[in-house]
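Pilot study result, target chain (165 residues):
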Amino acid sequence: MNVRVRFAAIAVVLFIVQMTFVPLISVAGYTPDLLILWIVAMGIRRGRVETTIGGFLAGFVQDLATTQFLGLAALSKSITGFVAGAFFNENTAEQTLGSYRYVLSVLLMSVVHNLVYYSVFFQGVERSIVAAVIVSTAGTAFYTAVVAVLPMFWFSKRYRTEWMR
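Predicted structure:
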């Protein structure tokens, strides 16, 4: 199967799971963003250009489904895709995906995504914008990084890498 078709199919499945099942596992109002896991994996494997375009498309579909701020998820996910593309290294992609570096990359990219997203989303809120952005960013980023351990183990088994490298 073509790599782009496979990445698109994975994105569609993750989007459906994100919209239907992930709200059921929220903790204190925070939910993991499964599309960030996909964007980071795509950035590590494919590079900046494809990841930026993929992040934009995933964010745009998410915007159409949520209808809150049209274009905000597309903007934040495309910026995240651009930054995640910096982790691209053709020679070490499998080792990165199957190690703790993937989880750290997800944590960093989740922070980038949430800072962009919540900085715009909380405009006009009466309480301190900085406090709201930091609290929302930290909770969602940490939860997304915890969930990233599962694909890390899957990548580790698939590519036969030691996850502690």
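One observation from the pilot: The mean pLDDT is 89. A full batch analysis is planned for the follow-on phase.
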